[in-house]
Amino acid sequence: MENLITTTLTLLIDTSYSWIRMFLALGLSIVISLFVGIYAARSKRAEKIIMPLVDILQTLPILAFFPFAIYLVILFVPGAVGVNVAVIGLIVTSMIWNIIFGVYESIKTIPKAVLEVADLYRLGILSKLRKIFIPAAMPRVIGQSILSWSIGLFYLVTSEIFSTGSTNYTVSGIGVDLTRLAFSDNYYGYIIGIVIFFCFVIITRFAFFSPLEKYFNRTQKQYVSTEDDHTKFISGGNVKSSAGAFVKYIKSNLRSFGLSNMRSWINSIYAAVKEYRRILAISLLVVLSLIGFLYALNILNGTLASYEYQSLYALAYSFIRVWGTFFAIFLISVPVSIYLIFLTKNIGRYVLLFQILASIPATILLPIIVRSTMSMPFHSEIVAFVVLFLSGIWYMIFSVIASHGSIPSETNEVKNIFGVRGLLAFKKIYLKAITPGLITGAVTAIAAEWNATIVAEYFTSSGIQNGTVLSSVNIGVGKLLDLTLNSGNLLQMLIVLINFVILIVVINRLVWNKLYNKVETVYG
Amino acid sequence: MDNQFLINVSNISFSFDGNPDHKVLENISFASGVDEFVSIVGPSGCGKSTMLRIIAGLIKPLSGKVLYKGTEIKHPIKDVAFVFQDFALMPWLNVLDNVKLGLSYSDLSDSDKTNRALDLLTKFGLSGFSGAYPNILSGGMKQRVGIARAIASEPRVLLMDEPFSALDELTANSLRSDILFMLHNKDISVNSVIMVTHNVEEAVELSSHIVILSEKPTKIKEIKEIDMKYPRNKHDKRFSGYVDDIYNTLISQY
Ligand SMILES: Nc1ncnc2c1ncn2[C@@H]1O[C@H](COP(=O)(O)OP(=O)(O)OP(=O)(O)O)[C@@H](O)[C@H]1O
Ligand SMILES: [Mg+2]
């Protein structure tokens, strides 16, 4: 009994430590984001450099760069302070990017007239910041902070335990505690820890973020509430008929798999191949030149060549894992998004629920996930799938919800007036309406998945215990990074990272930019 | 009597929360027959758009009924189409597909729908724009797409919620005559128009009847018949007489 009380107390204190670091990191992220975001939005030159950089940085597994940063920080600020600074820094790198985007977009969408009035009254740069830029950015900043908070929590565990080379560092925090409790089979303690964590999440949402949201949205309150009313108003009473429509859609879709449509299927596949001919050709070229490159490198330096070979091999495996999981995320987020945007009146309540769910990171559940799948075949792949899935899904859903504003409020009325139903409604209205949100969501979801490979593909007790490997996929870039990190092979790590960056940039170029441009021609 | 009118609004009351003490509309009754153009005017926020949405079957009244050719309208039907103030084009569909949305009720094959939509676009002077997305169109063009979409399925009744208020005066004028032409042309399905407007002159120029509403809880103050031949001349004494009369009714306190 006494034991339980001390455990609870320790957990409470350590969770508080974690939360203090989270708050410091969030504050720091917001301040930096305000400066960077406003600067990027107001200066053409800065915009050209900062925004693509932020774009890449948010896609990269920052976690993997961290050991380098730790080395530096601890070099300059030794001792416990240095370690804590490093941990806060790590959390900042997970939180900051989408806040910067939020600030940038809010400043970009300030009506021109407002800026002209400011010039007319000759407001100085400071009063412009105080009276225009910061107030304009804050509602989005708070919104993004809620998301950032969940991301920060995801990396909490990882940020509190880390090793560089053979040295392990830990700080006091709930992340370390939970891992330790799980490893020592102290399930009571573990469950108490999870409950405390959950309580902290809920309290933070309601006692910290909700008042902030209210405060900073006060000027837009009118707008927000009328919008709410409107959705209520237009979707009222349509839930049942929409569910009916959905069933009809599925039926008619099944029918369309019939033979009569065989030809159009073949045609569309042919068209797709034709459209992506260029991409196929480029891929082939890339693969061939990589093979050539490897041969050449092998002649020059065998070790480098084997590092490069391992990197590519691991990237290929993780690519399949990340995109495969993304496919599952996509299949689930499409109907969920359509339900949220078109078929329910309670979108606000769902958003709150999802925000809370999203704040319970897969990383603190990892010990349980690992244990409970231990006896299954492909258990490490299942663990990887679950962690990747949980790290990506919320981005998709929140992104679609955020894009809700660009969907005309009369959409449902148009659909009902003109009797658009079934497959037609799905194709021409629902799916197309959420496409921009899906695309932006996909970019961030996949980025988050790549980020999470480091946690998902390889899980050991090092830093806490003897370093038993508990879950480890066969091959994967996250695992490779973990291994090179543990063995202190920084050269190999660097090579892996370079390949990683190149892959991410190439995918951005080939896939996302194309899709963005398409969306731009419709909405721009 | 029911069949003489296309649309019969009888004793409609409405409140947003279902509470009869918070009524927005109270006992509204009027009708619109063949070849008739009914305008609804009233103070802003009095419930005009709500009224029109009830007629369309988009929302249910608290009490009362809307009849189309004697049958109660309980949900949107093919014969009653709607033109929106902010056009309500789907930004993700090109002009052609937006118009084809209006043909969703019809059993035509996809290529027949395309042909019919292209025909309509030509009639509305939009033939070069079938592949364009709404974001590049001017307001007037957008509303023409909105009207083409509305009449694509050959409705008998056209409901319009301030269809011209987002347009400049010149564009609005040309669209007004288009609508009158459609109403009076026997080859075009539209037999009856009900329009909400803020613009009293517009109402007098177009309408056979004008329904004048009061402040909330909104009742009908008066239904005015405009007995003038088309096209109506704004400089005609009788025209300005009607306009003054309606203004006076609108601002009168009773
Ligand atoms: N979903 C809703 N819930 C509660 N009240 C609403 C809702 N939608 C509108 N209202 C209120 O009901 C009243 C009638 O609204 P409606 O839009 O029908 O008026 P309107 O006469 O068309 O106004 P306008 O002249 O501005 O177009 C307004 O006072 C409005 O604020
Ligand atoms: Mg209105």
Question: Any overview of this molecule?
Answer:
The complex is a heterodimer of chains A (524) and B (254). Chain A has helices at residues 2-42, 44-59, 62-76, 79-108, 112-120, 125-154, 156-160, 174-183, 187-216, 221-235, 239-255, 262-275, 277-300, 302-343, 347-358, 362-373, 379-403, 411-417, 422-456, 477-487, 490-523, and strands at 161-164, 167-170, 458-460, 469-472. In chain A, helix 2 (44-59) crosses helix 4 (79-108) and helix 6 (125-154) packs antiparallel against helix 9 (187-216). The longest helix of chain A is centred in the middle third of the chain and has 42 residues, at 302-343. With 524 residues, chain A is mainly α. The radius of gyration of chain A is 25 Å and the shape is globular. In chain A, a hairpin with a 2-residue loop joins strand 1 (161-164) and strand 2 (167-170). Chain B is α/β, with parallel strands linked by helices and 254 residues long. Chain B is built from 7 helices and 10 strands. In chain B, helix 2 (95-101) packs across helix 3 (110-123), helix 3 packs across helix 4 (139-152) and helix 6 (200-206) crosses helix 7. Chain B is 32% helix and 23% strand. Adenosine-5'-triphosphate sits between chains B (16, 24, 44-50) and A (229, 232-233).
Question: Which features does this protein show?
Answer:
heterodimer; A: 524 residues; two-stranded antiparallel ribbon; 21 helices; 4 strands; globular; B: 254 residues; alpha/beta; 6-stranded mixed beta sheet; 4-stranded antiparallel beta sheet; 32% helix; binds adenosine-5'-triphosphate; binds magnesium ion
